Amino acid sequence: MNKGSIRLYNKLKKKRYCPENICEVGVYLPEESNLIRFINEGITVTLVEADPTYIAKINKYFENHKNVSVIEAAVFDFHGKIELSRRESSTFISQLESSPALINDNYKINETDKFIANSILFSEIDNAKFDLISIDIEGAEWYVIKHMISRPNIISIETHGKYYTNAKIDLIERWMSDNNYVPWYKDESDTVFIIKGTFRITTKEKLQIFAKNIVIDMVKKKKAIKTIFSAK
Length: 232
Description:
Blueprint: H1 3-14, E1 21-25, H2 36-40, E2 44-49, H3 52-61, E3 68-72, E4 74-75, E5 80-87, E6 90-93, H4 100-104, E7 114-120, E8 132-135, H5 142-146, E9 154-158, E10 160-161, E11 164-165, H6 169-178, E12 181-186, E13 190-195, H7 203-231
Parallel strand pairs: 1-2, 1-8, 2-3, 4-7, 8-9
Antiparallel strand pairs: 5-6, 5-7, 9-13, 10-11, 12-13
């Protein structure tokens, strides 16, 4: 079970907030689901994953969970077929210019890692009732937000990680502001937003976000300095 899922679950429990209809886009292995603790409590969940290898494992793992619906597709900006690349735990849409694997691992796409998946708009599967959405699709997160019908109280979205910053971060942050969302907390890779008034964000939590932003910026500046000196 990943640390992010435990953190999100525990923090929401502490706030006495319990979602009723949740969605995770980009699951990876079922036991690594960001929402697994909610799933095990019987909360209605829609799991979206593009990689058929992981889909088989997800279906098997949750076969006795009647509260779980599984959708095999890549969420992007059109309905059709799309090429993805598989880099260990990171599966991403090949045409993206930026993803964690490309930036942090200097991964170079090769033919043996490619496969074709169905591409859908998130609006095709959005029931307009999601109150918690977790999005981790290696650089394509904006396209979930762009076509989202629901206005969930909680949105957990991959925005950063080591040297990586989501290429659509400006669009994501503008959408959040326009739709009355504020950042609640950040971890190693995700920012969790809430609609204003869902619950109180404490002064301590605001300071933690401030401190986390400083750490994130320092890591990126360290890389920039290292790049300059290595080029000399």
